[in-house]
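wait is this the right file?? whatever heres the structure
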């Protein structure tokens, strides 16, 4: 009888891939975790309990077949594990790196609930697909047959790329329009290399290009090309622009030099990593080197900013967040990494104003958590007389993102939006009120996770194929 390869969680402890020392990782933008060795990946995958109701799978937005590919990894059947993994996920190696597993699959692992420490799902997922690339198991995109229909996708971020992948594999002619000079969107310019090295993203963009997807870059829809032109050129259109309008700071002095948007700061840093010339970085305007940096916000973007500032050689880095640690929206794993690297967190603190122009200090207001709001979350309240001034040469606004006013920017008054400015679209299909126009990702959900954008892109692509097939059937009658 074959030996049971699974259920090792009782005898084998949770063990993440080796994490580089904080001192070493402060000096570069490389990823902080090493790769699993084959034996370690098998050992950790074998901790899975193979439970009858896999909460890891049900809490994954893509409903990845996690227990199946963990079992195959434990049995040494890695190519099959990869094939199962990529059936539900367009970019598993990216999700393995940047998904907040502590809030999704791993946070709902049954053995975690029983006190044994969760299975290291994200690390195994990353290992499986990295190995697949190394071994040549990732096959080129080769449609069985070509279709005459074409789809235009506005936005080369995770949602747009996921839709492009599904549609191109089905033989549809796909053109992706993006305002940046490289594909990837947020994956390329918003997320730092220490979480997601850029060759991982560029490899996927190149796969799509080699598979026949056309990229029209440095193309700002509404300026360089109109939405109507794109719509007239294609049988269907996918809006996958993401949300890039930054929420602003208020208070006296909020317009001073030295107060910058997180997206500008992170984009400049990532461009430098590509070897681009970035005048704002070279002038020091978007560089933290030698500066006292204050980042305002408590989400994952704020964590990206504080950890980038450390690597740029900031004199000090402080993060202000108006609630406490337990109530912050960012990943607790990221907070721990930031603290190890030297970031100071000032919980229950908010900016009240700014001194100097260029900025020289932030006037900080101490807060406390009061009564719950309509969502049940405690609302922060000011503590009178508790203000103090924190020195700052660079203040980074990381308060989240809102949608741009696309109906106005694109002169499309009939493009329906919600009261939050996001595009109104059908759940699961992404179909908008405009014929043949679909929308996916953050421009529908508001600022959300990469994995949800991938899910939306895949779902919408399937709906577009149904739409094209229906149109083809009508034309044939």
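ok assuming it is, sequence goes like this
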């Amino acid at each position: 009888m074959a030996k049971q390869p699974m259920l090792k969680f009782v005898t084998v402890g949770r063990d993440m891939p080796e994490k580089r020392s904080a001192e070493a990782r402060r000096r570069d933008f490389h990823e902080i975790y090493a790769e699993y060795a084959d034996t370690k990946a098998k050992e950790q995958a074998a901790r899975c309990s193979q439970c009858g109701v896999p909460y890891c799978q049900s809490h994954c937005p893509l409903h990845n077949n996690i227990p199946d590919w963990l079992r195959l990894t434990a049995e040494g059947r890695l190519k099959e594990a990869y094939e199962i993994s990529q059936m539900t996920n367009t970019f598993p190696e990216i999700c393995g790196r940047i998904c907040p597993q502590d809030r999704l699959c791993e946070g709902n692992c049954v053995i975690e609930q029983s006190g044994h420490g969760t299975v290291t799902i994200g690390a195994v997922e990353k290992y499986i697909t990295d190995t697949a690339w190394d071994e040549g198991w990732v096959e080129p995109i080769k449609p069985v047959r070509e279709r005459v229909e074409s789809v235009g996708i506005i936005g080369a971020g995770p949602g747009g790329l996921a839709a492009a992948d599904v549609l191109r594999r089905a033989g549809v002619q796909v053109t992706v329009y993006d305002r940046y000079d490289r594909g990837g969107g947020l994956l390329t310019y918003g997320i730092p290399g220490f979480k997601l090295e850029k060759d991982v993203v560029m490899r996927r963009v190149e796969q799509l290009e080699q598979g026949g997807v056309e990229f029209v870059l440095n193309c700002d829809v509404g300026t360089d090309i109109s939405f109507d032109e794109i719509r007239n050129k294609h049988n269907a259109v996918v809006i996958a622009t993401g949300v890039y309008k930054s929420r602003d700071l208020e208070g006296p002095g909020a317009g001073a030099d030295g107060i910058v948007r997180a997206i500008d700061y992170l984009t400049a840093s990532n461009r430098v990593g590509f070897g681009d010339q970035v005048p704002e970085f070279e002038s020091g305007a978007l560089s933290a080197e030698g500066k006292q940096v204050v980042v305002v916000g408590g989400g994952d973007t704020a964590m990206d900013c504080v950890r980038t500032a450390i690597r740029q050689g900031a004199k000090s880095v402080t993060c202000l967040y108006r609630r406490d640690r337990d109530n912050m929206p960012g990943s607790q794993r990221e907070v721990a990494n930031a603290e190890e690297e030297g970031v100071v967190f000032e919980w229950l603190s908010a900016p009240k104003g700014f001194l100097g122009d260029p900025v020289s200090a932030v006037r900080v207001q101490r807060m406390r958590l009061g009564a719950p709001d309509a969502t049940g979350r405690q609302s922060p309240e000011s503590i009178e007389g508790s203000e103090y001034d924190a020195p700052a040469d660079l203040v980074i606004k990381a308060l989240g993102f809102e949608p741009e006013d696309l109906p106005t920017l694109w002169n499309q008054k009939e493009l329906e939006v919600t009261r939050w400015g996001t595009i109104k679209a059908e759940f699961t299909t992404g179909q908008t009120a405009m014929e043949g126009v679909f929308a996916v990702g953050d421009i529908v959900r508001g600022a959300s996770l990469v994995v949800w954008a991938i899910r939306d892109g895949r779902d919408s692509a399937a709906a577009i194929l149904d739409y094209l097939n229906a149109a083809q059937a009508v034309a044939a009658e």
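The mean pLDDT is 94. so i think its the right one actually
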